[in-house]
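FAQ: What does the model actually see?

It sees only this:
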Amino acid sequence: MGFLDRVGRFLDDVLLLPDDLRADLEAAEAALQAELFPEAEDLFAGVLAERPTLTRAALGLARARTARGDREGTLAALSSARRTAPEDGDVALWCARLALEEGQLAEARGAARTAARALAERGGAELAEAAALLAEVERRDGRPDRALKELRKAVASDPSDPRWALALLDWHAEAGEAGGAAAAAVPLRGPAAEDAALARRVGQALGRAGALDAAEPFLEAARDGGEAAAQVDLARLAWLRRDLEAAEALAREAVARGAGAEALELLGLVLTQSGAFQEASEALAAAAALTRDVRLWRYAARIVPLDDPNHLEAVLTGLEAAEPGDAVGQAVRVLVAAEAGASLEGKVAEGAGDDSSSDEAEEEPRALLAQARRALGAGDALGALGALDAWDRRCAGQSWAEADRERADAIRREALRRRWHGPDGVVDLGAAIDAVARFAAAHDLPEVLRETERLRDDLDRPLLLGVLGEFNAGKSTLINAFIGAEVAPMGIVPTTATLNVLRDGAERLVRVVRSDGSTREGGYDALRRLLAEAEAEAEGPEVDRVEIVLPSATLERVWVLDAPGTNALDPAHERLAREAARRADAVLWVFDAAQAGKLTESAMHERLRAQGRLV
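And it is asked to produce this:
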């Protein structure tokens, strides 16, 4: 606010007021000072009724209403003060703060901008707060770039206040930007060295952003400063790095330091991934007992070993006390009964409150294993395999599922042995496939028959090794070195999106194989023509793969499945790479040594592991 504006305000607020109005204003301010807020509010309102443009009275009314907790009334009084003193930075800042708390983004944005303009010359804490308020408005309004710009202004205006650097750090953490988060944390090193709670908060934010190396010293400082729970965060960092041994040691130390349920829960999760299910269930049950968290009881019940009746009963009792009739507890009791060979009739629904609870229990992994066991006991090997397939789908990607992996595998082996086995008791997959083929032929199922023929060929052929990698990673060079002949870079492999199988044969040739099994053969130089002819026939089936045949002792034992690179511009290439991974017996992933382990590669690897591929 300029000098002339201040003089005008002084004349209006003091010199030009009638004596009775000035007396009321002074009485209102005295009541406010004495914390007689209702009286102050009435007096200020009376003055404003006589003089609506009196900024001093509007601000006094706002303060009285704030003290009474009337947020909406405070905002109305501040809006009135802003109309009479539109360039007053302090009034605008107060108005912006309150409007943002009330979720009035348009009002908050205008007030914050006014405050920033008015306070630009003063700088310091007020200007920083104005910028931070505007940043929050932009964030809520879905404008992250503008929010980031304003947060940086706040940090620059008042670098001594850690709030603004923390806000900037949280912004980068929420966006998952590790580099930006690490840079935002630099000004916080000094304050964090003096404040263990602040150090932990900074370390946690860096951990959320994925800046694990930057997070570690902050969390160590927090732990050394007395924040016992920071030891849990350090254990979590090790877990995120997949260093299970270090994560377990740190989590155990956190338990010993008294970090409580949080440390016990993390220890249980780490031990689950390590395969120590007995200890893991004990840690999770201890955490559940402290927190009464049904989620933790359920987790403990899913992994608790069935051969320890005392601990098993303790876990089930805890779960049933926290959530009577819980589906997980029912499922575990059903499996226990199945393992003991007891009758399962009515066991799933026993104790359930309604039919929906029973349905949920039947979908629980351990209930599915019980179904498989029951089907096997009744001589229904196919039913057992169906229940196991459902178990696989339900447990995909879940580390706790490994607690029952041996049990599931044993049931599957027995079901397969009973379903298809040779004279020596070994499962005969060839006989199984042939039986399906006979059924398909007898019931006129041509698609099933073609699939069984393909499976029979797959069973008889050598190992099919899929060579995958991102675009330009060097797959062709590796394939040539593996085979001992330059095949891929000689123009043999087409540039169009195809799957290419390099296999052995008596002479060099190429074979275009379509989805119905029909083929076209020719020399290497004829491949492009053969592909064009196959694709030109609109009524014919699409091309399934290109087989590149050459005499090779290596290819007698291993066929190579070459696919387009992933992370390319053409989405068809990505689709074919996934199809190659699905067909291959094993996958060899080729990295570009200069930039290995990119996020796009990690995402592809997780997808392959979820499909059960060996990489």
